[in-house]
Amino acid sequence: MGGPILRRKLGEEVRLRLLAQIERGELRPGDALPSERELMETMGVGRPAVREAMQALEGAGLIEIRHGERARVAEPSVGRMVDQLSVTMKHLLVHSNASLENLKDARVTFECEMARIAARRHTAADLERLAETVARQAAALDDPAAFRRLDGQFHREIAGISGNPIWTALSDGLFRWLNDFHVDLVSVPGKENLTLAEHRGIIAAIGSGDAGRAGVAMADHLNRANELYRRGTAMHR
Length: 237
Known about the structure:
This protein has ten helices and two strands; from the N terminus they run H-H-H-E-E-H-H-H-H-H-H-H. It has helices spanning 10-24, 36-43, 47-59, 78-95, 97-121, 124-138, 144-160, 165-186, 191-208, 211-235; strands spanning 63-64, 72-73. It is elongated, with a radius of gyration of 23 Å.
């Protein structure tokens, strides 16, 4: 780990040294990190610098800290990566209308491609699972929170047909990041039945095996929701 740290930002230096060990594979997923005392003695720093470094690494999703145990290198996970982006993404969306519009456009492009891939790769079991999710959504018309949760599940399941866990995690992240901004405006009474009809249309398009048709069905669905959001925003100005 080298000799004592002489720079002013001690916590950052400790973080960088531990990060380098993780990136070089000297500390692998599941490995325990040295104890606080060992790090203090080896690096010549105080407890506050070590704890600052540990908190930063935990915040980045690189280590896990449990009470009474030594910190360990976290198992890599796409879901963990998306979770780490969530705080920054929400901050960006709250303070930038342009970023919100850009993210909605990005989601349309992403979801349309997921629908096209699903049309090419789906199985009968995939179609049954999507239909079951929509049926559960229809049964949740009187429960807005459950309806929205199943809405996200529907889109996540379509991404899952790709067989690529990165796409599934991104689908979940995109839905969660935008959900806070759409809840009050998109969940207008009477719009839920239109959502259900569009979801059924997307399933039919995927089931047809026509990738172009599936992409158009998804685009129409998301563009309708985005237009509703824009109208609602204009009414609230």
